[in-house]
Amino acid sequence: MKRPFYHYLTIGIVLLYLVVPLLGTILYSFATKWHKTILPEGLTFHWYHELFGDPKFIEALGRSLIFSLSATVLSVVIMVPAIFSIVLYAPKLEKLIQSFIVMTYAMPGVIIAVGLIRAYSNSGVSMVLVTIGAYFVGILPYMYQGTRNSLRNVHAVSLMEAAEILGASPLTAFRKVILPNILPGILVSSLLSFSILFGEFVLVNLLVGSSFETIQVYLYKKLNVSGHLASAIVVCYFFLICILSAIMIKMTQTKKETV
User: Is the distance from CB of 130 to CB of 208 less than 8 angstroms?
Assistant: First the structure.
């Protein structure tokens, strides 16, 4: 069946809307000057050379990776077994717990940051740890929904019953039967969570700020210095997320073929 022309027109408009700003940012990150012409007046690697020659950029990138990975790994280690236990052994509490988790959407980052500063500023607890904890809470809805949906899609209750009938303990059944089947969903949820945390600015800027500069704080400072440098940072950020996404997709496909 031949699709109507307006289907392709709609897809083309959406692609232009998504791709043109990205192409403009990439071109601007290589441009020498771009003020009065449609295309850049010249191209150069100077901005990337300056960016990667700045040790503060590498440090900020490393801190962002540490923050995002720590919170994501912590969420996987804690939330996956917790959600599994709720779905299988306490289904009556599922609606209540889901309501509490989804409520994190209703809390603006500024309000959370102010509350955390008032609570922990004089407690002796490092604000770096507080920020990781805030990140952990912020990605709860994504981890919860992704893991819960994966458990329902594989019929985790039936799989557990079958494994226990065959003599497996609950821990062994979870580790060798349930976890391999829901791993693609966990990887996708983890990638989504990591991407959101890696681009987070409000919490980290208010809680640790320039004392523990992340890539987003570094980008904010460079916006006032050079638009070309800021564009180069955005391009590096975009390609890093693309690489991580490709790795996750490859891992997901491998796990599906194995299962």
Answer: no
Give the separation between CA 126 and CA 128, rounded to whole angstroms.
5
For residue 89, CA distances in Å to 157, 181, 220 come to: 9, 19, 47
| Three-class DSSP labels, 84-96 | HHHHHHCHHHHHH
Q: pTM above 0.90?
A: no
Give the C-alpha separation, 216 to 18, whole Å: 21
pLDDT tens digits along 140-188: 888 888 888 888 888 888 888 888 888 888 888 888 888 888 888 888 8
- CA-based nearest residue to 203, from 117, 76, 103, 118: 117
Tokens 């998504």: give the residue: 18
d(CA 17, CA 95): 38
Q: What percent of the chain has pLDDT over 70?
A: 95
Q: Is the dihedral of CA 48, 50, 51, 53 positive or negative?
A: positive
State the Cα angle at 83 between 159 and 247, rounded to 5°. 85
pLDDT, tens only, 195-253: 888 888 888 888 887 777 888 888 888 888 888 888 888 888 888 888 887 887 777 66
CA neighbor of 149 nearest in space, from 119, 192, 196, 109: 192
**Six token digits for residue 231:** 């564009």
